[in-house]
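ATP-dependent DNA helicase RecG
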Amino acid sequence: MPVSEAAKDPGALPPGRTTLSELRRRPVRELPGVGPRVEGALRELRISTLADLVSHYPARHEDLSNVKRISELRVGERATVFGRVVSTKPVGRPVRGRSPGFSVQLYDGTGYMPATVWGRPWLQGQLQPETNVVVSGEVQRKYGLQISVKSIEIVEDRGSEDGPHSGSFVPVYPVNRNIQARRMRALIHRALAEAGHVLDPLPLSVIEAQELVNLDDAIAEIHFPTTKASLKEALRRLVFHELFIIQAALGARRERLARTEVGRSSAGDGSLLNRFLKGLPYSLTPAQERSIAEVLGDMRREKPMQRLLQGDVGSGKTAVAVAALLTAVEAGGQGAIMAPTEVLAEQHFLSFSKDLEGLPVKVVLLTGSQGAAERRENNRAVADGEAHIVVGTHALIQQGVEFRNLSLVVVDEQHRFGVSQRTTIKEKGTTPDTLVMTATPIPRTLSLTLYGDLEVSVIDELPPGRKPVETHVVPVSERLEAYEAVGRELEAGRQAYVICPLVEESEALEDVRAAEELYEELAHEVFPDRSVGLLHGRMKSAEKREAMADFNAHRTDVLVATVVVEVGVNVPNASAIVIEGAERFGLSQLHQLRGRVCRGEHPPLCFLVADPKTGDSEKRLEAMVAHQDGFRLSEVDLAIRGEGTLFGSRQSGVADLKVARLQRDIEVLVEARREAFALVEDDPTLKKPEHRPLRREIRELLGEDVEWLFRD
Ligand SMILES: Nc1ncnc2c1ncn2[C@@H]1O[C@H](COP(=O)(O)OP(=O)(O)OP(=O)(O)O)[C@@H](O)[C@H]1O
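Predicted structure tokens:
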């Protein structure tokens, strides 16, 4: 029975209804014709069960309703031709006895045309004369017309009824050399018939509300669509399914936290906050004001705050964090701010101390390099409540510092995606409010997936008057010219950063040497009349602090640094940055670094010294020149890297996405999130009978990590 018919008529099916779980347990070997060889070939494609097989979605569909005749083809068009193989012959200059490609002579009743296939030499043997093929590619002129082949498939005669291989849309699957396209199609067709009627794990209410096609139809249609429209519906259904599962888990996590953890209401009287705001040398942007209102609104509630504050480099997140911390203090609590590195913790400490000057608020810094006596004194101040705000690294604060009354934790994640850092610090039976700050311009799509359990505030505008950074890519041979331009900035009384090339973790010692060499060159040869400072990760804390303080106070004109300055360093008088070896940096790092020089009134300059070796690094540098906006850049980054890499590990709590493409599917994501959150709000552990299949699906797809969400 053709699959789609079977799916539409569940009544006519064999008695057993299967579930996705069952299909995940049944090995491909159960299918007739799958012996050890085919099994091995499938395993290479990571297919070992029937479930894997039915979810081995086609890369695309060949639209045979759109086939052109050979006599109609025009140069430059992309066309699909259905024809018969007349002969084949190798083409191109052989390398080590092998030709790089072959040419197939095709005939379709209206004419002859050669089609050239590059790579895939094993195909030539399969294309015996009289074989029917569907070829698509670009029509080119080369001693007459020919097709440069993008894809070629063996098919049956179009006239004959050939099950999965005929029809107007033929699925094209990712295959390898050990399994032919045709074989794959037949196997999948078989598996679908075998699977029969699959129980849908999504609740009926959701399926109806979203007008989704049912799972059976979606699976059948994604492989063997009847029309373009039905293919689209099938895809929407599968994308929704995938995103809904993740969002339901995130929603359940949020419910769980809210249910089991007691928070407290922190409402301030404004006594500190208003003084702080009045003392600011600028007025807040509307986005900052909105974010502050959202944060204070959460803090006022009894439920612990779980909020993400997202804002581009230099957008002014610090002011929002300070407002939250002061509110916590006004309400009689203590606040902690956790930074990813010691340098950044020190930097936060310096800027907070400055921001809070004159207010009756005591800020202490906790770092690993403080002496024992200093540490002891600070710990005491934290424990008896004398210290109102504590600044330290993630590690340090998580190591169980005793607070008298911790009510707010600000986690500065900067550019790491960390669900891990969000481990809640418990304090005397209550959970403090948590504000996660990230400068990573995470595309909205991604942030919904990664942080779907957090409320989100976005600072989506920069303070007024920020000038775009004039950005140049400079070949290594011309780097001294870049330094001449920097020299002119110094002449005008401004300062500059010079960033050393990035090295691997394992080359840490190299790193120091390279930084010192660059420092020597700049201090003695390039800028002999200027004062040059050096900052690298291997320096002692006190030395680092001194180097930074010197640059802050303009005792040094140029700061040569490794990536330690990447985040958070804030010297408004610095108007130029040179990044050596820029091709080695990731796009978000380059953006962060460039962000160091857009904090003042002077038109800033950025030089990316690089000899890009790969197309990707070239694209990254081009993107830096073309765009200033971090959100835009991160989308470009996503496009260059491919989304897959972001979900490479389970660590982030996000499973690999198979069908959903976040850029394309944002609307579906928003809907899936809304439905999923509403569902878990109503039934937090999904224990209602109608939600059990969903619960099982979440467990099977996301693994043991989510077990705890559903325990009663
Ligand atoms: N509304 C505003 N108007 C003018 N300047 C502002 C405003 N808000 C913040 N600033 C200034 O902008 C600079 C950047 O602010 P801040 O350090 O808070 O940015 P950030 O979002 O933390 O950036 P990063 O993630 O790069 O550290 C600071 O010098 C700050 O004083």
